[in-house]
Amino acid sequence: MTTSDQTLGLILAGGLARRMGGGDKPLTRIGGSTILERVLGRLRPQCRAMVINANGDPARFASTGLPVVADSVPDFAGPLAGILAGLDWAASHAPDVDYLASVPGDCPFLPRDLVARLHRARQESGQPLACARSGEWRHPVVALWPVGLREDLRRALTEEGLRKIEIWTARHGVALADWPPTPVDPFFNVNTPEDAAAADRIAAQHPDA
Predict the structure, then answer these.
(1) Is the predicted pLDDT of residue 77 greater than 90, yes or no?
(2) 38-49 pLDDT per residue, tens
(3) Whole-angstrom Cα distance, residue 75 to residue 43?
């Protein structure tokens, strides 16, 4: 099985956070820590290295000590642009890394076995890509991406104007890795102040989540 040594972790933090009133959702505090700190604590042990995708001033993430890469596709083209930025960073700075594992920067309860299970799903199905699912919900940005597909993704973004993840992944084949949505959905994401309050309650009730 492909191991964490061959996988780069990417935190997608380039969104506009309109429903949170602007700002950086990953810096929202949940259970005494920022979501970004929680994401890093879970994903970093599963990957060779970590990168953050964010636009604007990278200094706001300086405390992590991680590289911050901006979208190369202009006008906030969505998560696929952030994934391409991560794939390009991997190709330039970690050429022996074959896969990128992406997660959004607003999921405070990510699984600690995420990367291994995504790889297992990919290998067992024979598909090049894998994404997470909890219950009936797919999570297209919680996914595994081969670095070798980055030029195809670039063409889709820049020549076709493609923005929807699942249209592009369907072209290549994507496996699903399943998690139960209870007692805590590991892919609960914080989009609104109400979500942040709910996440605080979950963190208090399920300290190991």
Answers:
(1) no
(2) 999 999 999 999
(3) 28
Cis status of the peptide bond prior to 181, with omega within 30 of 0: no
Give the span between the Cα atoms of 197 and 165, in whole angstroms.
29
Beta strand residue intervals within 82-136, DSSP E: 99-104, 129-134
Round to whole Å and give the CA distance between 200 and 209: 12
Distance in angstroms (rounded) separating the CA atoms of residues 56 and 16: 11
Nearest to 18 by CA among 185, 193, 208: 193
- Cβ atoms of 135 and 97 within 8 Å: the answer is no
Q: State residue 3's pLDDT score.
A: 66
Q: How far, in Å, CA of 119 to CA of 115, rounded?
A: 6
Residue with structure tokens 């990417």? 10
Q: Scan for tokens 């309050």, then name that residue.
A: 197
Q: How far apart are CA 20 and CA 130, in angstroms?
A: 29
CATH numbers and ranges of domains, the chain: 4-205 (3.90.550.10)
Q: Give the CA diameter of the chain.
A: 48
Distance linking the first and last C-alpha atoms of the chain: 26
Indicate left, alpha or beta for 182 from its phi (over 0: left) and psi (-120 to 50: alpha): beta
The length of the chain is 209
